[in-house]
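Minutes, methods subgroup
Present: GH (chair), OT, SY

1. OT presented the first of two proteins processed in the latest run. Sequence and structure tokens recorded below as shown on screen.
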Amino acid sequence: MLRHIRTTEDVLTLLDGLFPASADRWSEDGSAWWDSFYGDADRAIPFRDAGPDEHVAAHLATGRLGTPGRALDLGCGTGRNAARLAAHGWEVDAVDLSATALATARTRVPATVRLHHGDAFTLPALSGPYDLVHDGGCFHHLPPHRRLSHLALLARVLRPGGLLTLTCFASGHPDSGSELPDAAFYRGEFAGSLHGGLAYPADALREIFATAPASLTCVELRPMRVPDPDEGLFGAEFLWAGLFRRAA
């Protein structure tokens, strides 16, 4: 008889186990799925070869992110945001679960960008403090209980006064993520899958990131702009473009 639950992390690991391995998109065990995703040349992946997220590019162009400092790119994929940040003078750590995506990133980012393969929540190299964290699609692929891990990461690595830029599935769009309630992912007919990722209403995102220990204030949250093809940027109307600030 096992009575091994002692810590919050024990509880989170227990909840991870309610999902089959095939549903994992958030831990090191999900690496193979992401490798297959990025390695499928026939799969239409608009952001695989795109430029940076349009709001990241806009904030850099206007100086809204402040003086370049240290940045962490969560779920960096092929390095499109990390490359733009580095071009604007940021010192960048970029992390992804997919070795396949990182192999492409190495051809796109300057040598100053440090690429990390693995789980951002457990990698000791991602110690911060960072002036900026960019999440270009990690958050909406987390099961509800792993929001706690995301908030804890921000609290641990984002300096006081630091910024979070976020790209996230928006509710109310047919091409976006699932709008099932949190409990449905753990019980009933829809349990055991994240159904492509979770869509979020704006108020929910504001409240989630305002929660301790992260305690971020929403500076801006708007639908992503769909760029013209010649802009070399990525944007889709079913995604949120968010900017949050940690209290100084």
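2. SY then presented the second protein from the same run.
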Amino acid sequence: MTDRLPLFPLNSVLYPGLVLPLNIFEERYRALVRDLLARPEDDRRFGVVALRAGREVGDLPVDTVDAVFPLGCTAQVATIRPHADGRFDVVATGASRFRLLSVDESGPYLVGEVEYLDEAKGDDAVVLGHAVTRAFTEYQQRLLGAQGRSMVELPELPEDPVVMSYLVAAAMVLDLPDKQGLLVARDATLRLREELSLLRRENALLEHLRSLPAVELVQQGGDQPN
């Protein structure tokens, strides 16, 4: 089944179940929100697609299909708060993944023809979920330690492997291509397997950084290109 959705390109990835707060100030997206307000509340949704590296929202709509990743997530609007100067504060929640089939650039904002994707668990999601839970708990504690913050008791992850896979994807500090790769995964099993690999990589890196003398960390930071 295909659908037409207003598109909102961002420099980040939205996952199902995650909250998305937005301050709308650019005119084309003000027009998008005004059109959403004209719809019934349960039909106020738009599609979020991540911009590829080196692209900015202001670059669009030139080569739009090449400027964004072809798989995104719908955002279901929860609240819209208008301001006197025409801006809007919008809070939405990620809902369904979609594949972008084509882009209509004729209006004030981009509109995509999309097809929605299923949310399958896969064969090994439950077993992998336990392994990811352990690795993610270690990751959070190591990250707190690297930031010089005291260890805390962290909330438990949900048992549903699909929901868990998206929460872990959103919480990890990763480059955008890695974030997008987790969104693209066909089912929760593949997403959790990739997360386990990424968590092991990040935990090893955090352990290595923790073991370096402070002076060496400063020197390494100074060697980074501008």
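Chair's summary of item 2: Residues 49 and 72 are 5 Å apart (CA to CA).
Next meeting: continue with the remaining queue.
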